[in-house]
Automatic annotation (TrEMBL):
GO terms for biological process: carbohydrate metabolic process. The active site is at R155. One of its GO terms (molecular function) is mannose-6-phosphate isomerase activity. InterPro entries: Carb_Metab_Reg_Kinase/Isom (IPR051804), Man6P_isomerase_Firm_short (IPR014628), RmlC-like_jellyroll (IPR014710), RmlC_Cupin_sf (IPR011051). Binds 1 zinc ion per subunit. This is Mannose-6-phosphate isomerase.
Length: 267
């Protein structure tokens, strides 16, 4: 079943989108996301397109939101860069350890931007972003984001834009530490790559169809996100730029020469 698509304008969005997307005339598209189906309501897939820096921000964990009394609304996410302009960067983690008081002061005076580690990126770079990781997306990036379905974002710094900040909440959950290199990967074209295996969801890239080990791990409903070539889900064609729900992995016909992401919640 094809998922409903939402196209969202953002001030930091783009008028020129990478194929297969096109922006309506005069609109700055920042997000294209797919409405989570009831069967997999805890998992959200988005495309992000940036022409300006996004705010310096972080997200709480499930444990932290439960402690706040608002239930499980934590957010862990991951980014797969599908296109990047020369010199495009992602700010993830800090260059050094940072205490809460120093982080707050840096957010107030804007120096937090310079304390972030800015990773120069190109297509194929992959980053897993645990809850609490302080991060910002720079301009010139096109990204597939797979995340826990939560909209709680704590902005620490927003370059003077007239939007609310959330310093108390953000500093309380933020990790003032460098980003672990082990959470970064590279995803080549036409290759099988295991990208995420818990704790909240799993994500794999497949070149062609799944091998028996992958099929054994993906039991029950899953999301299918073609990158190159079409797939068929229960007789319905799914093209790059779309996302579909499959009731099981055996219900998906993968193109032998195609590349596809598959994702499934684990908790």
């Amino acid at each position: 079943m094809l998922l409903e698509t939402k196209t969202v304008e953002k001030p930091w969005g783009r008028t020129d989108l990478p194929a297969p997307f096109t922006a309506p005339h005069g609109q700055r598209i920042g997000e294209i996301w797919f409405v989570p189906p009831p069967e997999l309501s805890g998992l959200l897939v988005k495309y992000l397109f940036t022409s300006e820096k996004l705010s310096v921000q972080c997200h709480p964990s499930d444990a932290q939101t439960e402690a706040m009394g608002i239930g499980r609304q934590g957010k862990e996410e991951c980014w797969l860069v599908i296109d990047a302009e020369p010199g495009a960067t992602l700010g993830i983690g800090f260059d050094r350890e940072l205490g809460p008081d120093e982080m707050r002061a840096a957010a107030l005076d804007g120096s937090i931007e310079d304390l972030l580690t800015w990773h120069e990126v190109s297509a194929g770079d992959f980053f897993y972003i645990p809850a609490g990781t302080v991060h910002a997306i720079g301009p010139g990036c096109s990204i597939i984001e797979v995340q826990q379905n939560s909209d709680i974002t704590y902005r620490l710094y927003d370059y003077g834009r007239p939007r609310d900040l959330h310093l108390d909440e953000g500093v309380a959950v933020a990790k003032g530490e460098p980003y672990p290199a082990s959470l970064k990967n590279y995803v080549g074209h036409g290759s099988d790559v295991g990208l995420v295996d818990g704790p909240w969801f799993r994500l794999d890239q497949l070149a062609g169809g799944p091998d028996p080990a992958i099929s054994a791990r993906y039991r029950g409903p899953l999301l299918v996100i073609p990158r190159e070539g079409e797939v068929t889900v229960e007789g319905e064609t799914v093209s790059p730029g779309q996302c579909a729900l499959a009731r099981e992995i055996d219900a998906v016909e993968f193109a032998e020469d195609g590349t596809c992401l598959i994702a499934q919640p684990m908790a």
